[in-house]
Amino acid sequence: MNKKPLIIALVVLLVSGAATGVWFMVLSKKEPSAEFRSVTAITGTIDETVSTTGVVEPRNRLKIQSSIAGRVEEILVSEGDMVNQGEQLALVSSTERAALLDAARLQDPGEQAYWERVYKKTVILSPIDAQIIVRSIEPGQTVTTSDSLFVLSDRLIVKAYVDETDIGRIAIGQKADISLDAYPDIRVGGTVEHIDYESHLESNVNIYYVDIIPETIPDVFRSGMSADIGITVQEKQNAVLLPIEAVQTVDGMTVVLGASADGMSPASYKPVTTGLQDEEHVEIVDGLQAGDIVLLSGGSFALPVSNGGGSSPFIPQRRKR
């Protein structure tokens, strides 16, 4: 049997396999390219906030009831009206007065006018300066002393729900930013007025209620609306700021990749000390000054996490997750 064709086929297969292996070795050693862009450290204001949710509700919710059982004769206010202490809200006839007037009305108009003059209606007054947020009655309606006629609110506030892990950073007098889920484009400033002393368990998490007083009450504010709140716990002006992605961790140290002054020398890592951080920027407390230039990756690869063995800091590696 002639084995020569078989040997030739095996040689061709080995050579092809070796070439393929070499090709893959070359590809495996080839680094992905990354583009770098320069950013300049700037001076600005940065603040640290605690973000949470809450609800719009009255600070003092006062339910108004009638002192007598009877019939509602007149309603003098509407929902949304602002009323002063002592202002008339409604007029109510007692059960006896209503029955007497109904009987007189059937007999003689003069008799009805007489009893209306000598038997006065009962006046429902506002006990505080407030806004009418609920009107539960209509003229002619019969009410009892247990029925709610109106609900008054001295003013609307926002009750924020703060997790116990954040409550230690909240203090009375801190500023807050409020936006409503229903009207996200409307933002209102506010101030922390009160922090509850007792927690409330919600979804197995201890929550503290924090009362925030809005600086203004837009017309769209309604009791029960959901709100997003950011409470400013720290703020610093004239801070040296960099984009968050410009700061890296190398061998356990916080560093930035600093560009050379002449633009010709190799870039090098510079250790920095960071401070406050928001969603976009981080404060550089030490290691950089305003106007210094640093480099950051503009591609899908991050800066290398170590620079041992003399490797170039420009060789990109995939960001660790």
TrEMBL record:
Pfam families named in the record: BSH_CzcB, CzcB_C
SUPFAM superfamilies: HlyD-like secretion proteins
All residue ranges annotated as the CzcB-like C-terminal circularly permuted SH3-like domain in the record: 241-303
Keyword DNA-binding belongs to the record: no
CzcB-like barrel-sandwich hybrid domain residues: 63-154
InterPro entries: BSH_CzcB-like, CzcB_C, UPF0194_transport
GO cellular-component term (any): cell envelope
Keyword line: Coiled coil
Compartment(s): Cell envelope
Taxonomic superkingdom: Bacteria
Entry keyword Coiled coil: yes
PANTHER family: EFFLUX SYSTEM COMPONENT YKNX-RELATED
Record-given protein name: Efflux transporter, RND family, MFP subunit
